[in-house]
Amino acid sequence: MTISQYEDYFYIYILLLISVPAIILGIKQIKIKYYAFFATIFMVILTIGMENQMLTIGVFLLWEMALIKLYKKVNDKNKKWRFRLFVLLSLLPLVFNKISGFTAFGIIGFVGISYMSFKTVQIIIDIYDGNIDEIKLTDTLYFVLFFPTLSSGPIDRYRKFIDEINAEIPRDVYINDYLLIGIKKMVVGLAYKFFFASLIYIAWLKEIPNDGSIFSLVQYMYCYTLYLFFDFAGYSNMAIGTGYLFGVKVPENFDKPFVSKDMKEFWTRWHISLSRWFGDYIFSRFVLNTLKNKKYRKKKKNVYRVGQMITMTTMGIWHGLTWYYIAYGVYQGIALALTDDYLASKFHKKHAKNKHYQFLQIFVTFHIICFGMLIFSGYLNNYI
């Protein structure tokens, strides 16, 4: 038997039971990480199961841990080809997972392979950058498997996570900065997912007729956007809250995204941990490496545009190898590139501080967001 994370009340019940010992340890000022590691193994087994997926995740972990330990030994800042090779090798299981759905074998992988792959690639990049001095196998496994964020994030950073799980947390700090905040996050997450998202799905999304009309299309665009936000933000808040209970300040993932005035601001408010990961490890690295070449320095705007297109298209492909995920990535890349031009325009600079203009920005940006979510949903298949 397997259960999906944060998808039903039975999982929440198990989650609450397994969190009680962590809370007791935190209040008693006893390090939580040792109990939390075994709790993570238990919850991973419960989520993934003991059959094919468990074997697959075992092979994945052996492969990734071997790569990380080996790269820590052979890392050489002057040999970029070696760094790139190890990044590609680390991504191989994820690539195989994405293309396996188009083979006769069917999808080969396990719940959470995408987010685990991001974590392992991140470690290799940080080793190359000289940000990691030591790799402890159990701590690294704990980071990769950390059960609250197993299937859909948020994505934490290795050094921050390792520092937190090994820190001594005083009782009053745990109660005020971890326990109370964690409970609040859990309550908000439960309300978002099991009330608002469920209500939108039952009362609206499920009732939209699949009749190919423009009215149904527009309804679905708005409805799916709101449903996705409350469902995903609900999941994220529960994951963050659980992390806090276990002594880890999991990064925020949503910050009122629908009040964004432009698409650049939107990506600082929506799926924050993912957009920062892509920004730090793909966009920034591409731009900095490209601008090292003198002939491109006078074309910074074009470099940024190409970087945005590469980053967002990669994000689309990461979601899946279907036309609408890839189109969603391209759409977001174009939206970001056009946003740069818009923010640099004399018209925007002239009106930027006007409140009525700001409300108009929010209105327009919301509709750009909604159309992107419509592409992402795959609903347009019904109209092609």
From TrEMBL:
Q: Which GO terms describe its molecular function?
A: acyltransferase activity
Membrane topology field:
Multi-pass membrane protein
> For this UniProt entry, which segments traverse the membrane?
6-25, 83-111, 186-205, 226-246, 266-283, 325-345, 357-380
Biological process terms in GO annotation: lipoteichoic acid biosynthetic process
Main localization (coarse): membrane
Compartmental location: Cell membrane
Q: Per its record, how is this protein called by name?
A: D-alanyl-lipoteichoic acid biosynthesis protein DltB
Q: Which residues belong to the signal peptide in this entry?
A: none
Entry similarity comment: Belongs to the membrane-bound acyltransferase family.
Q: Which GO terms describe its cellular component?
A: plasma membrane
The protein's UniProt keywords, in alphabetical order, are: Acyltransferase, Cell membrane, Membrane, Transferase, Transmembrane, Transmembrane helix
* One Pfam family from the record: MBOAT
Entry's NCBIfam families?
LTA_dltB
